[in-house]
Amino acid sequence: MNIKASLVTKSVLALTLAASVAACNQNKPADKPAASNTASSAPSNKPEIVFINQDSVVSQYDYIKDMDKRLESKGKAAQSDVQSRQNAIQREVAEYQKNAATMSADQRQATEQRLNRKAQEFQQYQQNAGAAVQTDQMNEQTKLYEKLIDFTKTYAKENGYKLVLTFKKGDPTMLYGDPNLDVTADVIKKLNEAYAKDKK
């Protein structure tokens, strides 16, 4: 019997950041005058596609650190509670086994029925406790997903990015990215600044 808050933060981030494609600005200027021989016709130096290092976000985003602590604390509390109940039943079983020889047949039968009932109730309680931990995980992951989606959309819009990609170590989807397109440090900085304001 082992209840663990098995965090899947990395997979959540993979889905979140990979899906965080910001809508590009489709408001094109109408009837723009013919471009003269000026620098206005030159392409902008600002990139429209950038990427984020997922591993860095997982390790440096304060919200995820606090989320992991919350889930770990709830998981440990559930594990401790279940273990305590299991130990109590085991003590009763040991006590019965010690005294069974001196008990009447009716007493033995009644005690065994009671212990069997308790064991079944414990199994149900253990399953419910595990389900509660999983529900907490799912709720936390949903909040994280929504928070990152909302942030990335706003961040991309403010900076004029049309596509925000993500990569992590060992993921073959993205094999190389120009370091100039890496906005991870800025994203983590702004994520933590926003989270610090939310906590106040």
From TrEMBL:
Entry-linked InterPro entries: Chaperone_Skp (IPR005632), Skp_dom_sf (IPR024930)
This protein's UniProt keywords: Coiled coil, Signal
Q: Which residues form a coiled coil?
A: 93-128
Highest taxon of source: Bacteria
Low complexity bias (residue ranges): 33-45
- What is the annotated signal peptide range for this record? 1-25
Give the span(s) annotated as Disordered: 27-47
Family to which the UniProt record says this protein belongs: Belongs to the Skp family.
Q: Which PANTHER family match?
A: CHAPERONE PROTEIN SKP (PTHR35089)
Q: What is this protein called?
A: OmpH family outer membrane protein
**Organism in which the protein naturally occurs:** Mucilaginibacter litoreus
